[in-house]
Design brief:
60s Ribosomal Protein L30, Chain: A; 15-stranded antiparallel sheet
Length: 290
């Protein structure tokens, strides 16, 4: 399997996880607010301090983002581009967000694909402090109670990355057993989730959110992304019992690579290793209770 050498030693725990409770809901992002504040308000209105969300078509502007890029210093296996600030309004096509905390304040990690005002199709990593909701649009959210994604220094990658930590319960209404996860580098994306579900006795699960990167990508339709550095959003994902008796993950994703190439589709199981990180929430569908 493909792998990329990271600057630091691999952590022993390859999946960082916290079991919690959660609930799916929808809300509308308020126009005129920074995307970060609009997302925070939507979760807070349902009693949650954080969680994950997915979105489709929406409008942003002003808007700022970075793309994946090669590292010029060797301090990281890959890095970020300069910040792009396209003129006019930007129309999102799809995206995924993790809402958590960094340096004691709300923060998000958000990847998506979009079309800029001049018609350019692009994608990448949205900048929380420079991205404004231009028009109201609806998102699909999953609030987590009892866990929080916290940005902390990660010696393996030499980045400050979101990972789940236990958090005091807020008392929000929940419906499901949920697991906040962070997958560490150089392990197969689908294989990690399948093994996790097997270990934790989860027969069926739905993925909510999903922000991270893979080492290129191999798709079930034969498509291949060769450039190794990507910014990826999960569009939809499930883990269910397979015909052979084990678990099988179906992961539909969208990404941009460091050359600007865009790709969408279902990932091949067993051939898509994580590059830097992958954050998501697993909802256990077999143990839903009030």
């Amino acid at each position: 399997m493909r792998s990329i050498k990271q600057p630091g030693s691999p952590a022993t725990e390859r999946i960082q996880w916290v079991e919690a409770r959660g609930r799916a809901f929808r809300f509308t992002l308020q126009a005129g607010l920074p995307l970060l504040e609009a997302a925070r308000r939507g979760f807070a209105a349902e009693g949650f301090a954080g969680g994950v969300l997915n979105f489709r078509r929406g409008a942003l502007g002003p808007f700022a983002y970075v793309m994946p890029a090669l590292s010029t210093t060797g301090d990281n296996a890959a890095f970020y581009s300069e910040t792009f600030r396209p003129a006019g309004g930007t129309r999102t096509r799809l995206g995924s967000m993790t809402l958590g905390m960094r340096d004691g304040a709300p923060f998000f990690h958000c990847h998506g694909l979009w079309t800029e005002a001049d018609g350019k199709a692009s994608g990448g990593h949205m900048m929380p402090d420079e991205t404004i909701v231009a028009e109201p649009f609806e998102v699909e959210a999953f609030g987590v109670d009892g866990a929080m994604f916290m940005a902390e220094p990660d010696p393996e990658t030499n980045f400050k990355l979101f990972g789940p930590v236990a958090a005091e319960r807020t008392g929000a209404r929940t419906t499901s057993r949920a697991f906040a996860l962070r997958l560490r580098p150089n392990q197969d994306f689908a294989g990690c989730l399948e093994a996790f579900c097997h270990t934790h006795g989860i027969a069926r699960a739905k993925i909510h959110g999903g922000v991270g990167s893979t080492i290129g990508a191999r798709f079930t339709d034969g498509g291949i992304t060769e450039p190794f550095a990507t910014e990826l959003a999960i569009v939809a994902g499930t883990i269910v019992p397979g015909a052979s008796g084990g678990h099988e993950a179906a992961l539909d994703v969208a990404l941009i690579d460091y050359t600007g190439g865009l790709a969408e589709g279902r990932l091949v199981r067993g051939d898509n290793p994580v590059l830097m990180t992958m954050e998501l929430v697993l909802e256990a569908l077999d143990e839903n209770a009030g």
